[in-house]
Amino acid sequence: MSNEVTNIEHLRSWLRDCPALSKKNRFRVDYLAESPTEYALYSVPTTIAYRENVLGEEVPREIQTLDFIFASKEQYGSDVRQNAANLGFYDSVIGWINKQNSSRNFPEINEGQVKSIVPTLTQYVADADSDSAKYQIQIKVTYRRR
Fold it and tell me: Scanning 54, 70, 125, 132, which has the fewest C-beta atoms within 10 Å of its C-beta?
């Protein structure tokens, strides 16, 4: 096991600074438990961009992207105010991400220098049962390779 901090750990630490996230809730990687309330950050497959160099070889482009899903397990049901509050939480998270993007306040990543972090999908219920639901957004990290 490597001691190097992974990109998802860097992003998780950066997101942890969002004031909408409660410090007392767990924040996991690639796993979300059944009981509310906790957060998770998932890695999503992302296409590696290539270009052809002068020798005709396929080489990675200088600008690349990484995709992630930020999710949470929330109380859910017939209470309109609770469900609206869940969506409002994600409005706050999206607003914070957009503010960090405008301020150019980005986490470190191993492959290069982050150029932008933007939400690419708005909040939605990805899975629900009678008393809890998994809400999520998708986030795109654009970076310049080292």
Answer: 54
Check: CB of residue 141 under 8 Å from CB of residue 111: no
Rounded CA gap, 60 and 71, in Å?
30
Q: Tokens 């914070």 sit at which residue?
A: 96
Find, among 35, 24, 11, the residue nearest to 93 by Cα. Answer: 11
pLDDT on residue 4: 83
Q: Rounded to an integer, what distance in angstroms lies between the CA atom of residue 34 and that of residue 135?
A: 12
Instruction: Calculate ∠ Cα 138-139-145, nearest 5°.
Output: 145
Alpha helices in 21-128 (DSSP H): 80-103
To which H or E segment does residue 8 belong?
helix 7-16
d(CA 141, CA 115): 8
Q: Measure Cα distances from 82 to 49, 75, 94, 123 in Å.
A: 41, 7, 19, 15
pLDDT tens column, 72-100? 999 998 989 999 999 999 999 999 999 99
Alpha carbon 90 to its chain's center: 12
Residues 116-136: tens digit of each pLDDT: 999 999 999 999 988 999 999
